[in-house]
Each structure stands twice: as C-alpha cells, then as structure tokens.
Design a protein that fits this description.
Layout (H helix, E strand, L loop, with lengths): L1 E6 L4 H12 L3 E7 L12 E2 L2 H7 L4 E4 L3 H13 L3 E4 L6 H13 L3 E4 L5 H13 L5 E8 L9 H16 L8 E5 L5 E9 L2 E9 L6 H10 L5 E4 L2 H4 L1
The structure holds NADPH dihydro-nicotinamide-adenine-dinucleotide phosphate (NDP) and the ligand O=C(O)C1=N[C@H](C(=O)O)C[C@H](O)C1.
Keywords: Amino-acid biosynthesis, Cytoplasm, Diaminopimelate biosynthesis, Lysine biosynthesis, NAD, NADP, Oxidoreductase
Catalytic activity: (S)-2,3,4,5-tetrahydrodipicolinate + NAD(+) + H2O = (2S,4S)-4-hydroxy-2,3,4,5-tetrahydrodipicolinate + NADH + H(+); (S)-2,3,4,5-tetrahydrodipicolinate + NADP(+) + H2O = (2S,4S)-4-hydroxy-2,3,4,5-tetrahydrodipicolinate + NADPH + H(+)
EC number: 1.17.1.8
Length: 239
C-alpha cells in the first residue's frame, strides 16, 4: 500500500482526489493537510502542520492541490521528511521548479509536477508540439472558472514552453501569446490555434468535470517513487 496524504482536501481538486484515492485498492489515504483542521468531519487524521503529518503518519507520497503560496512551505517539509511529492498546484516560477528538482535529487527522491493530469490535455500538448514543426504562427487561448487564481494557467505555460522549444529547433525564436479567460460557465479548456497561408488548425481540449484529472493523479501516485528529481508532466509515464 502506498501511504498517501492530500494537501488542500476541502478544495475543488482536493475533494475529488480524496474520493479517488479512497477507492484505489493499492493506495491508502492516511491523512490530509489543511490550514483549518477544525472544519473537517473526516474519518482520517487532519493535520495543520505538514511535517508532523509526514512523520507521524509515515507518509510515502504527498498529493498537493492548494495554491502556490501555501504549497511552497508544504513541499519543503515533504522533501525534508523524505516524502515524494505529486504537485498538481500551478503558479510556480521556472526557477522554483529547478530548485525542487535539485532538492529532490539531493534527497534521493522522486517528484512530479503535473500542470494537467487529463489524458486529453497531455495529448493536446503532444499534438501542438507536432504541429509546431510545420506552422510558424500560433497562439493559445485558455478558459477557466472565475475562481482560478493564476493566469496564465499551468497548462498554457507548459504548452507554450513546448512549442517554443520545437520552434527553437527550427531557428524560430519567439514567445507564444497566451490569452486567459476567467468566467463562470467554464471548468478548464484550452485552444492552441495554428495559422498558415489560407488555413487554420485548432487543437482544443475541454475538461467538463474534475473527474477528468483523476486517472492521471492515480498514475502519478503509483509511479512517483520510481523517479529521480522532479519530472514535469506525465508523458514519460504513459509510454
Ligand atoms: N494539475 C492539474 O491537473 C490541476 C491543477 N489544478 C490546480 O490545483 C490548485 C487547486 O485548485 P482548486 O482545487 O481549484 O482550488 P481551491 O481553491 O478549490 O482549493 C485549494 C484548497 O487549498 C486550501 N489551502 C490553502 N492553503 C492551505 C494550506 N496551507 N494547507 C492546506 N490547504 C490549504 C484552501 O483552503 P482555503 O479555502 O481555506 O483557502 C482550499 O481548500 C490550483 O493551483 C489549480 O491551478 C486544478 C485543476 C487541475
Ligand atoms: O485551476 C484549474 O482549474 C486548473 N488548473 C490547471 C492549470 O493551471 O493548467 C489545470 C487545469 O487547467 C485546471
């Protein structure tokens, strides 16, 4: 059994993750981490102090769905305690991700930062990379619910990075424009629009419910301890 803790269990993603982990036969949800432990009526221990949670509950894997500001402290404690993090929270800077990679390698731990756990979103990014070999013009539009705090989304930033990398290989050096829409009626959606002479290719992904992320979360929990340092995305684990 993989002894797992979830940070942010009252949140939109945290609630769905708690449900999914509880149903998995090879994973044991041993505790949750919440800054307001008194708000819970859970059957499992609730901790406000992440380090206390990790040591008392002998946690193997942490799944974090909080906000970048909260997540920074939780992740540092996880690495200190020898816990492998699955980071679903977005809004980190590139230099922070590099620092986590360094710290995880030093601690001989594996970690995952997955800006989008949905299989369709992973394929959208892969297909955008392929299209970047043939088109010179591309822009990204991402649409999210009005409560999302970060913009652009982690998915859009990662998609842009991958396209920019593919463009670099063709000696095309440019920053990909990202347009962020925040309003009720959306969950998580993205369009990657490529333009050529007299034609347009649109690659679009829609998450209509947060269940779309759960198979990816389970895969990440199962595999993260076999990695070394911080792996970005689930692509390598899907092969
Ligand atoms: N990787 C992916 O596939 C996906 C990633 N996300 C990302 O996941 C993150 C969470 O999203 P979402 O669930 O919609 O956000 P929510 O605001 O619904 O949930 C965040 C939760 O974290 C809690 N929290 C804040 N600080 C702490 C802390 N110090 N310790 C423990 N819990 C804390 C909040 O509590 P309180 O309400 O009291 O502040 C809240 O319950 C975002 O960064 C989002 O971008 C979202 C969807 C998919
Ligand atoms: O906050 C969200 O909702 C989502 N966040 C992730 C992101 O920033 O890309 C993944 C998905 O888009 C939903």
């Amino acid at each position: 059994m993989i002894r797992t803790a979830v940070a942010g269990p009252r949140g939109k993603m945290g609630r769905e993750t708690v449900r999914a982990l509880m149903q998995a036969e090879d994973i044991e949800l041993v505790a949750v981490i919440d800054r307001r432990a008194t708000l819970h009526e859970m059957q499992i221990p609730v901790y406000e102090d992440p380090l206390q949670c990790f040591t008392e509950e002998r946690v193997d894997v942490l799944v974090d769905f909080t906000h970048a500001d909260a997540s920074r402290a939780i992740l540092s404690r996880a690495i200190e305690a020898g816990v492998s993090p699955v980071i679903g929270t977005t809004g980190f800077r590139d230099d922070e991700l590099k620092a986590y990679d360094y710290a995880l390698k030093n601690a001989k731990l594996g970690g995952l930062y997955v800006p989008n756990f949905a299989i369709g979103a992973i394929l959208m990014m892969q297909m955008a990379e392929v299209a970047s070999r043939y088109f010179n013009h591309v822009e990204i539009i991402e649409y999210h619910h009005e409560q999302k705090r970060d913009a652009p989304s982690g998915t859009a930033k990662r998609t842009a990075e991958r396209i920019e990398h593919a463009f670099d290989a063709r000696d095309l050096h440019r920053e990909i424009p990202i347009h962020s829409v925040r309003m009720p009626g959306f969950i998580a959606h993205q369009e990657v629009i490529f333009g050529g002479e007299g034609e347009r290719l649109t690659i679009r992904h829609d998450s209509m419910s947060r269940e779309s992320f759960m198979q990816g979360v389970l895969l990440a929990v199962r595999k993260v301890r076999s990695l070394s340092g911080l792996t970005i995305g689930l692509d390598h684990l899907l092969r």
